[in-house]
């Protein structure tokens, strides 16, 4: 199925929510720099604004502003695990809006190896919020039909595609401590 990327870009930059396949589950996303879109996503999921959100990228260049304040030594674990299904908590980048970080002093980022996520971020020329497509505390969606049934008109853009081969959502590590959190 062909996507109309012009319509998807317009929806994204107008604050609408997107659903798309990721490595293991369907994700819900929006423009991370649009506070209204982020608040809408949190409301649709019934997710606390105090919880931080993951940002997905498809290229290293998209992550440069988020990683610029890190030393080369701090970036080593990122180079070793990306692209792939690993999310890193990065100490507070100066340009990151608080609504993405929630009550945290770090931001969660992932350089995805999933071709659909890579294409999405390339077409949007942006990082994308990447949170599991579910209501808080429930199982995440595994197909587009579940997205439509669970979220209806609240998620107007459903980008078709296949899930990656992972059985679980990305692992999460804290860059400061190296500790695995998920």
Characterise this structure:
The chain is an alpha/beta fold and 182 residues long. The chain has a single domain (5-174), classed as DHBP synthase. Helix content is 33%, strand content 19%. A hairpin with a 4-residue loop joins strand 1 (18-21) and strand 2.
Which fold name corresponds to the CATH topology? DHBP synthase
- How many structural domains can be distinguished in the coordinates? 1
Biggest pleated-sheet summary: 5 strands, mixed
Q: Which percent bin holds the helix content?
A: 25-40%
Subcellular location: Cytoplasm
Family: Belongs to the SUA5 family. TsaC subfamily.
EC number: 2.7.7.87
GO molecular function: L-threonylcarbamoyladenylate synthase
Gist?
The chain is α/β, with parallel strands linked by helices and 182 residues long. The chain is 33% helix and 19% strand. The strands form 2 sheets. Strands 6-3-5-4-9 form a 5-stranded mixed β-sheet.
Task: Itemize the secondary structure elements and their pairings.
Elements: H1 5-13, E1 18-21, E2 26-29, H2 35-45, E3 54-57, H3 60-67, H4 72-81, E4 86-91, H5 98-101, E5 106-111, H6 115-124, E6 128-129, E7 131-132, H7 144-151, E8 157-158, E9 171-174
Parallel strand pairs: 1-8, 3-5, 4-9
Antiparallel strand pairs: 1-2, 2-7, 3-6, 4-5
EC number: 2.7.7.87
Keywords: ATP-binding, Cytoplasm, Nucleotide-binding, Nucleotidyltransferase, Transferase, tRNA processing
Protein name: Threonylcarbamoyl-AMP synthase
């Amino acid at each position: 199925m062909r996507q109309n990327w012009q319509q998807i870009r317009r929806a994204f930059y107008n604050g609408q929510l997107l659903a798309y396949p990721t490595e293991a589950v369907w994700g819900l996303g929006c423009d991370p720099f649009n506070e209204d879109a982020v608040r809408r996503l949190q409301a649709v999921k019934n997710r606390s604004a105090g919880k931080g959100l993951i940002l997905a990228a498809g290229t290293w260049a998209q992550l440069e502003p988020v990683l610029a304040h890190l030393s080369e030594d701090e970036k080593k674990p990122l180079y070793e695990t990306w692209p792939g299904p690993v999310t890193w908590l990065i100490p507070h980048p100066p340009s990151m809006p608080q609504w993405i970080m929630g009550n945290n002093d770090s931001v969660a980022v992932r350089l995805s190896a999933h071709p659909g996520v890579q294409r999405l971020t390339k077409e949007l020329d942006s990082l994308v919020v990447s949170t599991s497509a579910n209501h808080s505390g429930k199982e995440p969606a595994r197909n587009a039909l579940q997205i439509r049934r669970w979220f209806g008109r609240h998620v107007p853009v459903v980008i078709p595609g296949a899930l990656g081969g992972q059985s679980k959502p990305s692992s999460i590590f804290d860059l400061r401590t190296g500790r695995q959190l998920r």
